[in-house]
Amino acid sequence: MKKLLIIVFSLLFLASCSNELYKYYDYDNLLYTYGTNDFSEKEIKRFSRKYTRIVESPKGKRKLPPPGACAEYGYLLYLQGKTEEAKEYLIKETVIYPESQTYINALIKSLEL
Amino acid sequence: MKKALILIAIITLFISCDVAKKIIDKNIPQDVDQTQDVIAEITGEKKDIVVDTNVTLLTKKEIKKIKKDREREDKIARGDTLSFIKKKYYQFFPKREDRIVSYPKIYSEKPKSILLIYPWNRSKNQNASEMYLINISKELSQRGYYVIPTMISLEKHKQDTMFSAKYTKGDEVRKYKEEFGADAVMFVTIYSLNKPWWSTNINSVAEYTLFSTTTTDTLFYRRADFNYDSPIPPYKPDKSKDTYEMDQRTIPLFGTCFQMQRSVFMDFPYGPYHKNYLKDQEKFSYQREMRYKIDARPS
């Protein structure tokens, strides 16, 4: 009986461990809806509220937002007219992922932030 | 006597004239009929060039021998040097190849950031590109690479300011290094993503090519034919309260796409953000053309 319990617990423990570097939450749903629909300004506000969780409460092995998440959130804030916050998030992306420097600089330039 | 001399002189004269004529005909270039050339110049059509060919008749044995030789040469050129039995054996028991052998350029160039070009959708499913784009970006991120933000690429494609993989050629990738700072660019062509109404099987076929933006070399190539045939849904959408709901018909297709990317990139070398970065060189790798089927129908 003891052995069985140990096996069950170890299996449960192994099942709870995930090898994923980042936690995406409902990123699939959000991005698929964004990609297949044309959003109004009101919808973008609602959308960015739902997106906040991915950026603000990162989980996974690295405990950081996934690549591109900060930039995408910054872009959403820009679409709502929150330019300062948008720039903050875009810069945050370059801090977490230095490879994004070229792209983010070009984006900041094109958005005139 | 006189008559004979005159006769001989006349004959020699005739002969010399004939010889002289022949020499003149040989040396003076003959007038070529240029009307065909003029017509071709006016109409812009190409003039047929007649090439003299010597036809030699070969016996059946000789023809067979030449055919065999040519086939052998073609096989060697293709790199196909295995015998029939060995080939069949490797079809069922594939030879294990390490990742360093399959993807040597990824390990030598060490790309850190990847740009996903909007996939070229040749399937009948309208939203296949979005499904692929989202799932590939997620999969590559989980393998430790930096993927250029997908949402902004989607938005750019919506605004018609970014080309899809259909219009971008492999040798034009250098510009993405300057524009996006990407070390590698991935092109995807989707051939099918469908579920026929009479079957429970979902089939998806796609081709993936990863190009280096510094050398334009192909770093990774795969053609995958993926089938998912099971009553168990391939994907569990996030059911938190504050989210959008995916269409019930889309979920199995999206899920198949998700499962497909899992298997396609299962042997993809780890990126710089993964703890196994550059440590997986001796692990297994799949073949370039991959057929994968999940068949879990109830008996």
Tally the helices of chain B: what do you get? 10
Sheet with the most strands, sense and barrel status of chain B: 7 strands, mixed
Instruction: Provide the β-strand percentage band of chain A.
Output: under 5%
Multimeric status of the protein:
heterodimer
Task: Explain the layout of strands and helices.
The complex is a heterodimer of chains A (113) and B (299).
Chain A (H helix, E strand, L loop, with lengths): L1 H15 L10 H10 L4 H16 L12 H11 L3 H14 L4 H11 L2
Chain B lengths: L1 H26 L7 H9 L16 H19 L5 H9 L4 E2 H4 L1 H6 L3 E4 L3 E2 L6 H15 L3 E2 L2 H9 L15 H7 L3 E11 L7 E11 L5 E12 L20 H15 L19 E2 L3 E7 L4
Parallel strand pairs in B: 2-4, 2-5, 3-5, 7-9
Antiparallel strand pairs in B: 1-8, 5-6, 6-7
Please explain how this structure is put together.
The complex is a heterodimer of chains A (113) and B (299). Chain A is an all-alpha fold and 113 residues long. Helix content of chain A is 68%, strand content 0%. Chain A is built from six helices and no strands. In chain A, helix 3 (41-56) packs antiparallel against helix 4 (69-79) and helix 4 packs antiparallel against helix 5. By secondary structure, chain B is of the alpha/beta class. Chain B has a domain at 97-295: Rossmann fold, CATH 3.40.50. Chain B starts with a helix and ends with a strand. The mean pLDDT of chain B is 84. The chains are: A mainly alpha (113), B alpha/beta (299). Chain A binds chain B through residues 20-22, 24-36, 38, 49-50, 62, 66-68, 71-72, 75, 97, 99-103, 106-107, and chain B through 112-113, 127, 130-131, 133-135, 137-138, 141-142, 144-152, 154-155, 158, 178-183, 237-238, 240, 242-246, 250, 254, 258, 273-274.
